[in-house]
């Protein structure tokens, strides 16, 4: 246990030359500061990039049809085909480990002709024919009313859920759209819900300008029969869609008489694979941050070790007297190590405090900016584990910095130390 005399001795030794002590401590201060700032910046970049994925289920793939590039079983290349609704139970039966399979149809969209009318107001919006599971794969926040259910699917109800952007363009601010009707390409649909969402393509406004209707109603109203435009397929948590993707595509090829080696016939986008690439990138960035920060910190530790050697040299006579009076080697070693650890921890904690202040200011600035998905930097932060690791590094560094000077101190013979002027 450290007593008052030891504390006084530590303070006296470190304050004997203030300027030298401050310069020495700055190396450790700067090392910890850089380490925490780099880790926080990496986390902020990670948060910003992942924010671009929105709330969409990342263990998901999207699949669509493309032109067949190889002849097969008498059928020519260059032909087009469509997914069928019967592909859904076929995939589910033959590929275990899938959580959701959502067939989708789509019409209209931003930049196209006006396809939705309500009174004198018109607009061009994406209209999706969906099953209820889609809200679990591409989440939206229902702001009023409800989302689709299987009653709507089974009874082919002509109902619609509209985004806040659609509501703004088709309805007056004081009008409640629930229970009112809109016409989609001349077919009336009753509004049963409104929603807001984060767009996954960075265009937040466009994410609010979508309309969801039951898949069966869509097929009936717009004469799409049993055709499916594309599918969103999500795997169970203990499986990855990347490992199941090949089996899913093989089922589709078999159902539509496509050459198993035709890699162009089925288009797909593996969100899970892309998400893992992003995760791998940030693991590498975190490793670089630790590497760079540790090197900078190491330079500060070397500085402390050097200054402690100088302090030991200056106190050679004092050490000799203490040894002559019976001070044990471990007491001399302990005193030097305590001084080294104390200087390291104080300067390191100052670095952590300064970096925390910078992170706080940056977060305050980001909080005052508009909330959009285009921001590639969000909520830079470090968790408690990083702080604990930094403290562990500081304590270890302090021991290493004082170890060599402590060994030099106890190797000095009392008689030689007393002769030193």
TrEMBL record:
One of its GO terms (cellular component) is plasma membrane. Residues 291-414 form the ABC3 transporter permease C-terminal domain. It is found in: Cell membrane. Belongs to the ABC-4 integral membrane protein family. It is a multi-pass membrane protein. Residues 21-249 form the MacB-like periplasmic core domain. It comes from the Bacteria. InterPro entries: ABC3_permease_C (IPR003838), MacB_PCD (IPR025857), Macrolide_Exporter_MacB (IPR050250). Its main location: membrane. One of its GO terms (molecular function) is transmembrane transporter activity. Keywords: Cell membrane, Membrane, Transmembrane, Transmembrane helix. This is Putative ABC transport system permease protein. The chain crosses the membrane at residues 21-41, 288-312, 341-362, 382-404.
């Amino acid at each position: 246990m450290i007593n008052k005399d030891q504390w006084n001795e530590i303070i006296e030794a470190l304050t004997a030359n203030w300027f030298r002590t401050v310069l020495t401590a700055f190396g450790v201060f700067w090392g910890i500061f850089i380490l925490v700032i780099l880790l926080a910046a990496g986390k902020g970049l990670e948060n910003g990039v992942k924010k671009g994925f929105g709330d969409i289920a990342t263990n998901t793939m999207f699949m669509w049809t493309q032109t067949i590039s190889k002849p097969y079983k008498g059928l020519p290349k260059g032909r087009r085909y469509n997914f069928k609704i019967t592909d859904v139970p076929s995939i589910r039966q033959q590929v275990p480990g899938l959580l959701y399979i959502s067939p989708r149809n789509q019409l209209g969209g931003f930049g196209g002709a006006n396809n939705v009318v309500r009174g004198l107001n018109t607009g061009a919006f994406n209209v999706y024919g969906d099953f209820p599971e889609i809200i679990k794969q591409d989440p939206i926040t229902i702001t009023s009313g409800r989302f689709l259910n299987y009653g709507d699917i089974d009874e082919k109800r002509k109902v619609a859920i509209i985004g806040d952007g659609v509501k703004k363009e088709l309805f007056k601010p004081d009008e409640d759209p629930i229970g009112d009707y809109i016409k989609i390409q001349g077919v009336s649909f009753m509004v049963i819900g409104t929603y807001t969402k984060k767009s996954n393509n960075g265009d937040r406004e466009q994410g609010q300008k979508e309309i969801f209707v039951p898949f069966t109603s869509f097929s009936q109203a717009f004469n799409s029969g049993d055709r499916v435009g594309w599918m969103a397929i999500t795997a169970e948590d203990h499986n990855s869609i990347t490992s199941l993707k090949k089996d899913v595509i093989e089922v589709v090829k078999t159902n539509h008489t496509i050459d198993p080696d035709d890699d162009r016939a089925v288009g797909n986008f593996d969100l899970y694979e892309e998400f893992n690439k992003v995760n791998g990138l940030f693991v590498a960035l975190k490793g670089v941050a630790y590497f760079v920060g540790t090197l900078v910190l190491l330079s500060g530790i070397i500085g402390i070790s050097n200054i402690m050697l100088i302090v030991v040299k200056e106190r050679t006579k004092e050490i000799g007297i203490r040894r002559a009076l019976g001070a044990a080697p471990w007491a001399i070693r302990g005193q030097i190590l305590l001084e080294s650890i104390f200087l390291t921890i104080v300067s390191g904690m100052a670095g952590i405090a300064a970096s925390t202040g910078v992170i706080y200011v940056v977060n305050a600035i980001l909080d005052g900016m508009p909330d959009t998905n285009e921001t590639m930097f969000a909520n830079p932060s470090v968790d408690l584990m990083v702080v604990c690791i930094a403290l562990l590094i500081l304590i270890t560094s302090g021991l290493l910095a004082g170890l060599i000077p402590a060994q030099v101190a106890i190797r000095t013979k009392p008689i030689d130390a007393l002769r030193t002027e």
